[in-house]
Amino acid sequence: MNETEARLKNLEQSLNKLQKSQGMGTQAAIVEELRKTKAELQMMQAENHIYSNEKQLLLDREIATLAELSTIKVSLANAQRELESTATRTEMKDMEMADVVSERNLLKEKSSDLNKQIAGFQQEHSAMQMKYSEVVERAEEQEAIFKEERRDMLQRIDMLTNGRKNLRQLDLFLDEENEFKQEELEAEIEVLRLELKIAQEDRIMATSQSKTLKLSERDYKYRYQRNKKDLDAVAQKYEEASTAADRAVNDLESLKLEHAKLKEFNATLAAEVKSLRDQNKAIGSLEADCNQKGVLIKALRDEISELEEEGEQLEATIQKLKCSSPPSNVNMRNNSSSPPSVAVRSGKLESLTPETEKPKAQQQLFAKDHQAVLNHVGVSAFMR
């Protein structure tokens, strides 16, 4: 901005010098064109300022977009970590489910084994009951037989006692026979006593067998109760395992729902990232447009600098003409309003014309310079 202002000041100084040295006919047109050029320069500076502000805004938007992209990348990384943790959790739940299923199968096998054992125990119990009933029947039969034998023995003992009484009465008559019969009776009594003792021992054995059967039945009942308790504990464990499996299934379903939600969130994030990438592409296209506009502005500045150089060359040629012109020509310029006899074209000094043709030649040269300035201004406006 300072350089352009300095150049504009130089142009104004050169214009002032031209106003002092030349007439006001073509000089006013040149001044007007230079003022237009100055206005266009100011407009170009304003446009350059606007373009710089727009570029700064675009840069700010790009920075914000990059920040949003970084946050979205962080959120995507977090979502990826959550997905990985969810996958690991699902794998762990699957492993736990496999363990629970294996434990459930083991419990089923144990329960089937226990059911088989219980069936075997029930069969043994039924067999023991049958044996016990058989033993009881045999004991009852033996007891009935023993009672009958005892009754017979008591009858025989009564008969023997009656016979002894009769024998005592007949002792006098039958001493020898009585002794012989008494020995036989004593032997028979001894045999009967032995038989009674054997029967008592059989009865004791039967009672002991019944007691052992009762103890075995009690032991079987205790074992049956214990196995029933074990079976109840196994059934409770089976129910707990089934509830744990149901809980694991519910947890797995909830994890699947969370996984689906995270997939939807990932899809939305991908759509947002795609939209941000499209915005970034649009920003890149805007930057390319800005760069093209910057190139155009640079070309306009180069043209302005060329115009300023041509103005400086014009000023230099004017100064040279002032220095080379005689004082008579100076007096003639003060008296008349004709321009100096100077021919300038594209910043180069041409040959001087005779004094009679100076006004026409100068007017033609100034007209050509004016046309060149107009051409430059038109080209710059067209390029803008």
TrEMBL record:
Organism per entry: Rhodosorus marinus
Entry keyword set: Coiled coil
Start and end residues of each stretch annotated as Disordered: 323-361
Coiled coil regions in record: 1-54, 104-156
Protein name: Uncharacterized protein
UniProt feature, compositional bias: Polar residues: 325-340
Keyword Coiled coil set for record: yes
